[in-house]
Amino acid sequence: MTIPRLRGAALATAGLLAAGALVAPGPASAAPGNPGAPRFSPGAPSIGDLYFPDQGNGGYDVQHYDLDFSYDPATRFMDATATITARATQDLDQFNLDFRGPEISSLTVNGKKNDFTRDGQELIVTPRPKPKTGQMFTVVVKYAGIPGPVTDPDGSIEGWIPTDDGAFVVGEPQGTPAWLPSNDTPTDKATFRFTAKVPEGLTAVGNGQLLSQQTTDGWTTYVWDNTEPMATYLATITIGRFVVTESVTPSGVPSYVAIDPRLVTGSANAVSQIPKMMEFFTGLFGPYPFASTGAIVDYAPQVGYALETQTKPIFSNTASVGTMAHEIAHQWYGNSVSPERWKDIWLNEGFATYGQWMYTEYNGGATVQATFNSSSNYGRAASSSFWQIVLADPGPMDMFSSIPYNRGAMTLHALRGKVGEETFLRILRQWAEIHKYSHAATTDFIGLAERESGQDLTAFFDVWLFQKGKPTSW
Ligand code: TRP
Ligand code: ZN
């Protein structure tokens, strides 16, 4: 799904041209001297992200994912039908999806049985008849078997992670193809619907709003509707035994909170502050971008991190107040505005961490300035390895280290000092508004900060984002 940008449209076009130039033109089937005729070629097998070279594909733009499946935690067996609705962005004689899931029993394009091959994460489809530029097409993939986790370069796991009572489902940065054939890039957002059938007594919790819940013959089917564009890495349909609490925030946003019974007591404080966080961040960042909120607190201690899954952040153990604030802040920065490339990860983690610092101050804890100064932040010695990584391109091993989080937040705090309180808040709000439901890169942020402040910030961003070493003047 492509959301038109209010500004930066010229940049977006330039990006498309550059990406297209990387793709070797396929054999043209148009007759010479007939420029209007279709020129079919394969869509690119990758989006060109250097951190995860297999991720994403070209030639089409997904509008909607519909996944209808059953899952039995006792056998870990999934039986699924995925329906992907996409628009061709070129005359296509072949395209790829990203998929690492279980065995495919059939694949159709526009209702016709279709050949496909699999090669690692690539599911390669040769549609007949071939979609032409601008045409919508529908791919239906039926598959069944045991989905599993994906391991990242930094050793962390995501994807489909079985738990003692279900499955913990997260996808950042590359886990969603473990269970859903998809265009796994934050630059192709889509709406999602999950229909999940699980043994009675278990709950399947997905992004967005619960449309229905029905039990027959010992199985309960949950239908979840995520109505705003979402990056694939933010999808979840987590399954387990949960205590569910539904409510509405003071601003009227429906909230659905599911907590593993073992973690209810320990997570009560964090969960009870969701409404206050929603109000605080709405006041600071602008309108909340989604139709619902909530949280999933599951017991998957082998995962060891929380994730800002869209509309409902997910925790792999007891939720803390600080992490809850971080994940709620991500709904604006990370989820509605996603990184164009993974090297831009500080735009996610620095912003969410800064939101967390601001909430801590608002909530009567340490001031943002004190947090900035502390020994885990600016107080780190200049000799620390913490300063030896380039924030604007930390590499896949440091995507989720303290570099994008803490140095990212410090960069925003330094910017606040540089441009002043009012301009800084305007920059934060504009960032959320201009790139709502879309994606953006570090250069877009620098451009916005310079426009809003009227300052040349080259030297500022150079020391904070592009150079190694502890910034001493800016
Ligand atoms: N983005 C998550 C957060 O900040 C953290 C996260 C996602 C993560 N994937 C990860 C951390 C992999 C370590 C490893 O809440
Ligand atoms: Zn984060």
Automatic annotation (TrEMBL):
Biological processes annotated in GO: proteolysis
Keywords, sorted A to Z: Hydrolase, Metal-binding, Metalloprotease, Protease, Signal, Zinc
Signal sequence interval, chain numbering: 1-30
UniProt family annotation: Belongs to the peptidase M1 family.
Domain of life: Bacteria
Region (Disordered): 27-48
Species annotation: Micromonospora endophytica
Biased composition regions of type Low complexity, renumbered to the chain: 27-39
EC number(s) from the headed UniProt entry: 3.4.11.2
Pfam families according to UniProt: Peptidase_M1, Peptidase_M1_N
Cofactor(s) this protein requires: Zn(2+)
InterPro entries in alphabetical order: Aminopeptidase_N-like_N, Aminopeptidase_N-like_N_sf, Peptidase_M1, Peptidase_M1_aminopeptidases, Peptidase_M1_dom, Peptidase_M4/M1_CTD_sf
UniProt catalytic activity: Release of an N-terminal amino acid, Xaa-|-Yaa- from a peptide, amide or arylamide. Xaa is preferably Ala, but may be most amino acids including Pro (slow action). When a terminal hydrophobic residue is followed by a prolyl residue, the two may be released as an intact Xaa-Pro dipeptide
SUPFAM superfamilies, per database record: Leukotriene A4 hydrolase N-terminal domain (SSF63737), Metalloproteases ('zincins'), catalytic domain (SSF55486)
Keyword Zinc: yes
Top-rank EC class of the record's enzyme: hydrolase
UniProt-recorded name of the protein: Aminopeptidase N
One term of GO molecular function: alanyl aminopeptidase activity
Keyword field contains Hydrolase: yes
